[in-house]
Amino acid sequence: MNFPDDLRYTNDHEWVKVLEDGTVRVGITDFAQSELGDVVFVETKPVGASLKQHEVFGTVEAVKTVADLFAPVAGSIKAVNEALDAAEVVNTSPYEEGWMIELTVDDPAQLEALMTAEQYKKTVGE
């Protein structure tokens, strides 16, 4: 299982990467994609949508189930990953090509409350 140290994590199994311009990239963790199984479809709210922290921003459909995606921080969707048209990229590359959205962050302090890789590992029993 892969838990990159440069990311922050949520209890809902999303990861967050702070980009150079201060926006954040969001996706689901390696643990989450392995629990879901083969991802066949990803749907997100559109660019420009405003999100509250913990608000559903989309869904991931896998062979076994459908799961909601939750905003780790409040903000506005700046970009949606077009590569998700081939949803299996979430399974093969959850931290690189399989990212879901980029957000302009409303309150950077919310980022500090997210888990480190070590904290997240303990949460999922690694």
From TrEMBL:
Binds 1 lipoyl cofactor covalently. It comes from the Bacteria. The modification N6-lipoyllysine is found at K64. GO terms for cellular component: cytoplasm; glycine cleavage complex. Belongs to the GcvH family. Pfam families: GCV_H (PF01597). Transmembrane segments: none annotated. The keyword Coiled coil does not apply. The glycine cleavage system catalyzes the degradation of glycine. The H protein shuttles the methylamine group of glycine from the P protein to the T protein. Signal peptide: none annotated. GO terms for biological process: glycine decarboxylation via glycine cleavage system; protein lipoylation. PROSITE patterns: BIOTINYL_LIPOYL, LIPOYL. This is Glycine cleavage system H protein. Its cofactor is (R)-lipoate. Residues 23-104 form the Lipoyl-binding domain. It comes from Prosthecochloris marina. Keywords: Lipoyl. The glycine cleavage system is composed of four proteins: P, T, L and H.
